[in-house]
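Narrative of accomplishments. A recurring question from our advisory board has been how the design workflow behaves on a single, concrete structure rather than in aggregate. To address it, we present the structure tokens for one chain from the evaluation set, followed by the sequence designed for it. No filtering or post-editing was applied between the two.
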């Protein structure tokens, strides 16, 4: 495992990181989830991502228990705030940030977060109020660095233009062989502004693995209502997946391994943030590290299938 510096922060994060959406606290039994976490650390992953909304606090609670006893400075811990936690609790107002931060720290059983991320942009709160609240969180020592996920470019720029407030060091966009919406402008913008990229769903939630090549297996994410949008498994997408799988086989890799190596081919992608429902899946995915090199000819061939998707980013789950 190699480590890359996250934007202008002093955080060194593993090239592959582990998330907890639809897996930890919900979805995967606690013993299995613990084994995944232990395997991740054993293989050099040091960066764990969660959000207050994952399982409405259940993912953070699971992680708080599972991480307890591990030296706090041996891993980088990130969570997020924005999505509704109750009918009256959502968004990025000063009151919400203060309240949700305290509760997240309590669930995670830690005094500080390495990275606190705004899960989406809050159009109902003035940006100044959000940035001031985030800055107070940093000044208090409860948060080391701040980041955002899927914010509009013009709002990111407005935040960067403010003086006297904490600066964002990370962006968390969706990115995979089936979704390149951040290329090229967002990636270049972030690089120019000292913002690292933590790219999520690099396996397109399992579509970029052998999971769906022969149908939808029972228990898979696609088989669970509400977890995946139906436009992710169209015939057109599956044709691309089969072609990419052939390229992976020629390289002696699984498709998951090729998909992850592809996200890491660009050094501007600081970390590729995976999920795993079992140790077997995790080991398969981490096998990508054995061969991250993709030649120019292979890249050109991959480019024929790795096109931008037409998945509507804003029409998806309200809790990712
Ligand atoms: P992935 O694209 O890595 O999908 C993970 C899922 O794919 C697994 O749960 C499993 O699903 C399947 N899978 C994983 N590895 C394999 C394998 N080797 N072979 C076969 N199937 C496999 O990432 P996620 O969509 O889970 O997202 C990763 C993390 O990113 C999240 O946990 C979260 O922390 C973050 N995230 C952030 C978002 C944001 O808005 N900022 C949005 C979404 C995610 P199955 O259940 O079928 O076994």
């Amino acid at each position: 495992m190699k480590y890359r510096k996250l934007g202008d922060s002093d955080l060194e994060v593993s090239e592959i990181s582990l998330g907890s959406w639809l897996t930890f606290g919900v979805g995967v039994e606690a013993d299995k989830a613990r084994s995944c976490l232990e395997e991740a650390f054993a293989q050099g992953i040091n960066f764990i991502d969660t959000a207050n909304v994952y399982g409405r606090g259940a993912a953070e609670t699971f992680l708080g228990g599972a991480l307890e006893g591990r030296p706090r400075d041996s891993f980088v811990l990130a969570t997020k705030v924005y999505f509704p936690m109750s009918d009256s609790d959502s968004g990025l107002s000063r009151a919400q940030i203060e309240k949700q931060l305290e509760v997240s720290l309590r669930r995670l059983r830690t005094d500080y977060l390495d990275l606190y991320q705004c899960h989406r942009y809050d159009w109902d709160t003035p940006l100044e109020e959000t940035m001031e609240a985030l800055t107070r969180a940093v000044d208090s020592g409860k948060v080391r660095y701040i980041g955002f996920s899927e914010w509009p470019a013009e709002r990111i720029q407005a935040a960067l233009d403010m003086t006297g407030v904490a600066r964002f060091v990370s962006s968390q966009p969706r990115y995979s062989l089936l979704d390149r919406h951040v290329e090229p402008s967002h990636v270049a913008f972030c690089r120019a502004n000292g913002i690292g990229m933590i790219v999520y769903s690099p396996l397109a939630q399992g579509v970029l693995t052998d999971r769906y090549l022969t149908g939808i297996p029972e228990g898979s994410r696609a088989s669970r209502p509400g977890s995946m949008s139906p436009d992710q498994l169209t015939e057109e997408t599956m044709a691309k997946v089969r072609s990419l799988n052939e390229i992976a086989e020629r390289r002696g890799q699984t498709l998951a391994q090729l998909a992850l190596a592809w996200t890491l081919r660009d050094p501007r992608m600081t970390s590729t943030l995976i999920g795993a429902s079992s140790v077997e899946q995790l080991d398969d995915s981490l096998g990508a590290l054995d061969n991250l090199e993709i030649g120019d000819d292979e890249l050109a061939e991959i480019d024929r299938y790795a096109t931008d998707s037409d998945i509507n980013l804003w029409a998806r789950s309200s809790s990712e």
